[in-house]
Amino acid sequence: MSLHLSAFRDALDGILPSAIATTSASGEVNVSYLSDILYLDESHLALSFQFFNKTRQNILENPYAQVLVLHPGSSEKYRISVQYLRTETHGPLFERMRAKLAGIASHHGMAEVFQLRGADIYRVIAIEKVNSAAQPLPAQPSLMPALRRVQDTLSRCRSGDALISALFPTLAREMGIEHGMVLALDRGSGRLYTLASHGYATSGVGSEVALGDGVIGVCAEVSAPIRINHMLHENAYTRAIRRTAGDAYDLAPEIPLPGLIDPQSQLAVPIAIGGTLKGVLFVESPRNHAFTYEIEDALSIIGLSFGALLMQFHDGGCSEFDADLPEETPPCDCPVSGSALRVRYYSGTATVFLNDDYLIKGVAGAILWKLLREFAANGRTRFSSRELRLDPQLGLPHLSDNLATRLILLKRRLEERDNGIRLTQGGRGQLLLEVLHPLDLIEAGAA
To answer: Are strands 439-444 and 341-346 parallel, antiparallel or unpaired?
Structure first.
């Protein structure tokens, strides 16, 4: 083959619909559209198998087919002759394709309708450029220098908070990514919570996404990247199926897309350590085809290195969450003034409200309540992360490897609300609580 798949990899995204032509054993031709094509290597493609239709029947009778793809930038057309080899119904490849389809479907409550039955593996026999007069796009610069600069900037951070704060400004500067979030996984609740965001009117720190919900939730559920580069096309497709499905399915209500009101491109990559998911790095854009295969590869590398760097600052690591307090920790004589700040705590869900406005819940809520009770009782303002980790009343997981991210979340939520309560680092392994107003602590039952 004089042409290589990697030369027109972006055409496989389906921004312009791709089609497959098959023939039955008797020679009857069928042409249908494809939902997804995945590049495997220069000699192999994976096509989504979703329905038992004529295409499926033909390919089982006659394994040879032709796939027509169109490049979204140059309008070049490529005809790819392929041979069906096998169908995979489990494993990393299947999960990756399933994740993309499920991520699209979940935005429209169609998880039960729009399901992948298998990943069909095809061998590439020949590639032909159909309209040779079309002008190819100019070569794009390599992302490797930008990736190196991102990695270098992040590696210089000396705390988990600094690392999270540096992530998106660095991505914006080096890779032009203007909108995104980083979320940490809470295995106990099966949800992800937002640690930081960039490019939105509101930060969304503390907002949650359930496993399996949307691009973010599905990425976390299967621990695989999901890249969607043409939301309007994909959304129209799923809405069409939704209309024809009618009442045959118990469809969940649509959930709002996170961040941008009308995103055209979204990409979520796992943040993992040693194969264990820790969170998700999510980016989006109002532009079509904003995230290429190269950007997906680069952000996947950043997600892995970000997780490794963040682990240094977790309470099992060698950084700011390892030390004990000095033997003597006298109370601080920080002056409090003004009207009382009403803090209501619901023990059933560890939910905290400040002056009747929701602040935080879960482990972070339980931590804040402990700190405020200690302050109200004896004026104490200095605490150690080790004592928090060992306090059975806080309900931390056995290994509590996300205590650091919980504290970062709590610190950022307090900064956002600016109600006169602040949490800062007071030395290695130490936390400083600052309270500027008298407290009215109210403990209730389940919220």
So the answer is: parallel
Q: For residue 244, what is the enclosing H or E element?
A: helix 231-245
- How far, in Å, CA of 367 to CA of 393, rounded? 9
Would you place residue 280 in the very low, low, confident or very high pLDDT band (cuts 50, 70, 90)?
Answer: very high
pLDDT tens digits, 117-133: 899 999 999 999 887 66
Q: For 248-272, write each residue's pLDDT tens digit.
A: 444 444 433 457 878 888 999 999 9
Q: What is the 3-state secondary structure (H, E, C) of 378-427?
A: HCCCEEEHHHHHHCHHHCCCCCCCCHHHHHHHHHHHHHHHCCCEEEEECC
- 180 CB burial (10 A radius; 0-12, 13-18, 19+): buried
Size of the chain, expressed as the number of residues it contains: 447
CA distance 251 to 266: 23
Residues 6+ apart with CB under 8 A from 14: 34, 35, 36, 37, 230, 233
Best mean pLDDT range from 134-138, 159-163, 226-230: 159-163
Mean pLDDT, range 408-426, rounded to an integer: 90
Compute φ and ψ for 222, nearest 5 degrees: -105, -5
- Which phi-psi region, left, alpha or beta, contains residue 318 (left: φ > 0; alpha: ψ -120 to 50)? alpha
- Cα separation of 172 and 312, whole Å? 24
DSSP codes joined into one string, 84-97: EEEEE-SSHHHHHH
Using alpha carbons only, how large is the chain's radius of gyration in Å? 26
Classify the phi-psi angles of 363: left when phi > 0, otherwise alpha if psi is within -120 to 50, otherwise beta. alpha
pLDDT in tens, 196-228: 999 998 888 888 888 888 788 888 988 888 888
Q: For residues 194 and 84, what is the distance between their CA atoms, to the nearest angstrom? A: 42
Q: Give the three-class secondary structure for 256.
A: coil
User: Between these two residues, 46 and 114, which has the higher pLDDT value?
Assistant: 46
Instruction: Return the residue matching tokens 């500027």.
Output: 436
Residue with tokens 């390892």: 322
